Prior knowledge:
Blueprint: H1 2-29, H2 43-56, H3 58-80, E1 100-107, E2 116-123, E3 128-132, H4 139-147, E4 154-159, E5 162-163, H5 164-167, E6 174-177, E7 186-187, H6 188-192, H7 201-210, E8 220-221, H8 230-243, E9 248-252, H9 260-274, E10 278-282, H10 286-289, E11 294-297
Parallel strand pairs: 3-10, 3-11, 6-9, 9-10
Antiparallel strand pairs: 1-2, 1-4, 4-5, 7-8
Helix pairs in contact: 1-2, 1-3, 7-8, 8-9
Amino acid sequence: xxxxxxxxxxxxxxxxxxxxxxxxxxxxxxxxxxxxxxxxxxxxxxxxxxxxxxxxxxxxxxxxxxxxxxxxxxxxxxxxxxxxxxxxxxxxxxxxxxxxxxxxxxxxxxxxxxxxxxxxxxxxxxxxxxxxxxxxxxxxxxxxxxxxxxxxxxxxxxxxxxxxxxxxxxxxxxxxxxxxxxxxxxxxxxxxxxxxxxxxxxxxxxxxxxxxxxxxxxxxxxxxxxxxxxxxxxxxxxxxxxxxxxxxxxxxxxxxxxxxxxxxxxxxxxxxxxxxxxxxxxxxxxxxxxxxxxxxxx
Length: 298
């Protein structure tokens, strides 16, 4: 309010001063001034004075505008300050296998019909559970739900008693190998290390060896995965899963599109990666399902 009034007052006096100068020039030209003046104006000089008068008061107008803007900014500043988001309360990750519980879970994307509804399951610590069913039955969506990549439309998911609705996702507690592991331009070691940026070269070498990735870790891989065969790309995902020290292992179609020999090799890797972990596997493969302690058909 003070800024508005001050701006108005300065504008008023600036305009009044210019008007008085105009009246003075007019009366001077007409020789009607009621008091003596040291000199009289001619028409060019009068126009020059009138043109220059607004510029004399321009700094005052700018000062008033700047003061007004500052006061407006100070008044608006509190509305622009937002409190820091409250981080969800998360239970610290542990090394022991975790219990996973799905209670009446439903998943629907963007208001569409649910891809899965009324799903209940308890996965005990250290247990391997295979999710099997037709394409589109919701196997991958259940894995994505744990990662925070799929919406929980109804029900609840708990890991070690911690609800998903409060945690938002359990990605830091999960080692993940998807159908098409992401590849970034860089060395093989750098791609494996995406699972754990703190891993030393020795751990990277061990994870690569366990996953069957032979050869130098400094070999270059482009963004399309050039330099890796289909089987090696799957092994890259499993190497990341082995590298990450997480109590939960999620595998999405780990042997899809592999020949029988490559599939058998990957099965051995899955057995190794699942040791001491609670494991969920989405698969169409009977051979992969045979590894599980419990098979759930969707």
